[in-house]
């Protein structure tokens, strides 16, 4: 298959992981990568803004606050969280005004943080960490807690987004926290379940130019779980006025998909349903037996990824496409062109990278020669044809069809720790054939036939049999493919955007969301690169990349800010917070790059009174000065 062969052959771990000659005298597999930047804990908040040292030039027109969110503290008393996603949320603020910059950070005052602080131990189960058992909670308490949305963790440590003039921190639970964009004080908590009845939502809603916000959430119905697109209309009562635009039924009633983001174009919402699912039976077991939530994730590697296109006006699903399985966290952008929908995604062959973010994995990465291959991702472009006119034909030659097991599940197992058993429990249902629960499933033989293909059509000619299949993608200049099978399902094959690992992608959001675009900006996800802290600018037209890096420096997600009167898509600056590896844990900085030339304009360095952890996602608030 294209995706599986691409990562297995072109990026074969045996060929690309560090050879012994590259391992330094300390026995480290990745001597250029400082994993300690992810292991730091903020010991003391910086409530009052501190001044930094500016070098170079920060444009005077750039005024506002770069707000950041991410893991802030691994420790609770003598205990440690076991996964990066469990750490207490810490928000950062770089306030920029007239060429000067200040910095501050504060913890999000979640109920989970308060409970843990009071008990001085972990008393709320997180994604990868089981809580200390509470002898006062009976089995009946645990059963009733399953049906209360506020019974679990409310640790919103992934992202931050505006709702009108208010800013909220997000995770994938329905709990959001309102943050003052000037003081970083936590001013309130919202449970989205109270307004639209969802049990979780993505960490990345879409904020339109008119202030309306859309997000994707999962809800329980009489007929099974569904994915709901939720609209929060711009106004004074965005949550009270929220409503469901439309719904998509989950393909498996007992395994709703894991959703971290979704897409929006001028006419469609794009819902990408990957075969990483949340097992509802395992969720009940985990809740009753106090296991970490990661034990509920199941990966079905031989099941296709589905692309649902929902009409924005009617809320009805107009099209569903399929590709072979891949894992993703972030969609770059998506748009419509010449009766096609184009969607660019940061793809991985499987979700093993989630396991790489356990505490033990991060601490031991320098002795793990396979660590880099688990993080091996590439940006891929999928083109979804809405019509079949003027299609080109591709002829496939004979090949023997061999049978193989179609259904195979993989548990996202945690690393053995003091807080949870060393061996994950597998239920018998993990190995049942769940094909009968699938909607619009592929016929087994057609899936096998398609999976014999490779990136180049001449290689496919040697492997596939004597059936003529039509490439439905007619978009000029595109190398992506789509084939309609005899059961009328359409199977798509992506093309490579650039040969570099890209994560936390951003672009000119205000101008290009849901529209044809040319540039996106990202951090490197290749931990075995010469400089793992590289920032990249990708030209999706020429497929070229520009890089910025500095030794031992690890920038965050690059956020584009347009100049006051932009003439081109990349007319502006890119902002990124910076931390440094090694003994520089008390140092943090703000980097300002020229988005057009990808060169440094200026920076501001701060020396703090304690460690500053690396953050995940953020937002530029132009009015919060």
Fold blueprint:
Blueprint: H1 2-10, H2 13-16, E1 46-51, E2 53-56, E3 64-73, E4 75-76, E5 79-80, E6 88-97, E7 100-107, H3 111-119, H4 139-146, E8 159-163, E9 166-170, E10 175-179, E11 186-191, H5 193-196, E12 200-201, E13 206-207, E14 213-221, E15 224-232, E16 243-249, E17 263-264, E18 268-273, E19 276-278, H6 280-289, E20 297-300, E21 305-311, E22 317-323, E23 327-337, E24 340-348, H7 352-355, H8 359-363, H9 371-374, E25 377-385, E26 392-395, E27 409-411, H10 444-451, H11 457-463, E28 468-471, E29 481-484, E30 490-493, E31 495-496, E32 502-506, H12 509-512, E33 519-524, E34 535-539, E35 544-548, E36 553-555, E37 559-562, E38 572-580, E39 587-594, E40 599-607, E41 617-621
Parallel strand pairs: 22-30
Antiparallel strand pairs: 1-7, 2-40, 3-6, 3-41, 4-5, 6-7, 8-9, 9-10, 10-11, 12-14, 13-14, 14-15, 15-16, 17-18, 18-21, 19-20, 20-27, 21-22, 23-24, 24-25, 25-31, 26-28, 29-30, 32-33, 33-34, 34-35, 36-38, 37-38, 38-39, 39-40
Binding site for Fe cation: 204, 260, 330, 617
Cofactor: Fe(2+)
Organism: Ceratitis capitata
